[in-house]
């Protein structure tokens, strides 16, 4: 970069910060409603909005309420909604067959939303944990999460979601080879327009705790996910995973969690220049909400600041539980 700072007082870097008008003129990044993907949790029932204790302000919704949420999101201009299922414990098995049931809670929600609000993009989650008796993202044999058998199951899951009308598939399982296998299966099934947003750099993080409560996987999970999710110590490895998933047919890539991993977001954008997303995960949401509820932080301000930081780090969009709140704020601003 060429030097742009003449010696003081020729340069006074406070000049462009003098007023809101000046600050607006020199602002490098902005957060807009187009940057938001809203994750929601769905469950059985009718007219149900069940609070999740560790995620204040977030509810598990029955399908009819999820459709209303999608209508509200579309009215606010939110481009995409992402569906996560709370599965009845009686449907969880070792082989996770419910995951590719065309009529599971997730696939019925996709159909209901696409029928009522076709303009909103529907994203899904592809991983076995909500359907697995042991809470893992993959099939477990003799204590080992088996890769290739899991990929075969994930492909069935992906096809069922595409058949239900999903616009964006979100593989969050971290198995090897799953993007290529899904892409090939989608092509073969004539689902040529279904996008894959790969959770490529997904870390084995303690920030997922509240989410596991939300989908009812916390109690079931034995052990940790360290043999498939990434070591939080690594950064070069994330670049290899991103490149691998792009080469296998991912359209968009994700870094997860968000705020503690902004360095990874920046590297991905700089090295690959592809549509890059971050997930502001449940634990990040819980931290900000808890502090705001105690009056320790200004909730609205930290919400906006945390999301703007993702844009500055190079992200094209953010999955955030704050999506409807922030969309309303941006609309009224
Ligand atoms: N594979 C499931 C999945 N998909 C998204 C999240 C976390 C989202 C959040 O914490 O908000 C998880 C949890 C996990 O990997 O244990």
Automatic annotation (TrEMBL):
| CDD domains on file | ALAD_PBGS_aspartate_rich
Q: Which gene encodes it?
A: hemB
Example GO molecular function term?
Answer: porphobilinogen synthase activity
Record-level GO cellular component terms: cytosol
Q: Which reaction does it catalyse?
A: 2 5-aminolevulinate = porphobilinogen + 2 H2O + H(+)
Q: PROSITE patterns annotated for this entry?
A: D_ALA_DEHYDRATASE
Q: Which family does it belong to?
A: Belongs to the ALAD family.
Per UniProt, the enzyme's principal EC class comes to lyase
What name is this protein filed under?
Answer: Delta-aminolevulinic acid dehydratase
**Per its UniProt entry, which superkingdom is the organism in?**
Bacteria
* EC number in record: 4.2.1.24
State the SMART domains in the record: ALAD
Query: Lyase among the record's keywords?
Result: yes
- Pathway given in the UniProt record: Porphyrin-containing compound metabolism; protoporphyrin-IX biosynthesis; coproporphyrinogen-III from 5-aminolevulinate: step 1/4
In the record, biological process GO terms are: protoporphyrinogen IX biosynthetic process
The record's listing under InterPro entries reads: ALAD, ALAD_AS, Aldolase_TIM
Q: Which residues form the active site?
A: 202, 256
Q: Which organism encodes this protein?
A: Actibacterium lipolyticum
Question: Subunit details for this protein?
Answer: Homooctamer.
Alphabetically ordered keywords of this record: Heme biosynthesis, Lyase, Porphyrin biosynthesis
Parts forming coiled coils:
none
For this protein, the record's SUPFAM superfamilies field holds:
Aldolase
Pfam families from the xrefs? ALAD
**PANTHER family documented for this protein:** DELTA-AMINOLEVULINIC ACID DEHYDRATASE
């Amino acid at each position: 970069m060429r030097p742009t700072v003449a010696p003081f007082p020729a340069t006074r870097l406070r000049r462009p910060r003098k007023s809101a008008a000046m600050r607006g003129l020199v602002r490098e990044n902005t957060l807009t409603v187009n940057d938001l993907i809203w994750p929601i949790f769905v469950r059985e029932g009718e007219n149900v909005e069940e609070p999740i204790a560790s995620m204040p302000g977030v509810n598990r919704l029955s399908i009819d309420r999820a459709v209303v949420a999608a209508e509200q999101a579309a009215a606010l201009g939110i481009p995409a909604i992402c569906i996560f299922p709370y599965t009845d414990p009686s449907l969880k098995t070792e082989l996770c067959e419910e995951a590719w049931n065309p009529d599971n809670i997730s696939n019925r929600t996709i159909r209901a939303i696409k029928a009522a609000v076709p303009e909103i993009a529907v994203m899904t989650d592809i991983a076995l944990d909500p359907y697995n008796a042991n809470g893992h993202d993959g099939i477990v044999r003799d204590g080992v999460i088996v890769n290739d058998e899991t990929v075969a199951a994930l492909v069935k899951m992906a096809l069922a979601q595409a058949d239900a009308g999903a616009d964006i598939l979100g593989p969050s399982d971290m198995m090897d080879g799953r993007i290529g296998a899904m892409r090939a299966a989608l092509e073969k099934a004539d689902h040529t327009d279904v996008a894959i947003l790969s959770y490529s750099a997904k870390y084995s993080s303690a920030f997922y705790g509240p989410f596991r409560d939300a989908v009812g996987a916390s109690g079931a999970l034995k052990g940790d996910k360290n043999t498939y999710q990434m070591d939080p110590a690594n950064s070069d490895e994330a670049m290899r995973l991103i490149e691998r998933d792009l080469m296998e047919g991912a359209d968009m890539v994700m870094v997860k969690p968000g705020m503690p991993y902004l360095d990874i977001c920046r590297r991905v954008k700089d090295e690959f220049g592809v549509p890059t997303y971050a997930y502001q995960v449940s634990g990040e949401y819980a931290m900000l909400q808890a502090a705001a509820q105690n009056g320790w932080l200004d909730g609205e301000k930290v919400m906006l600041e945390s999301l703007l930081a993702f844009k500055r780090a190079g992200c094209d969009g953010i999955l955030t539980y704050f999506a409807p709140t922030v969309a309303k704020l941006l609309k009224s601003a």
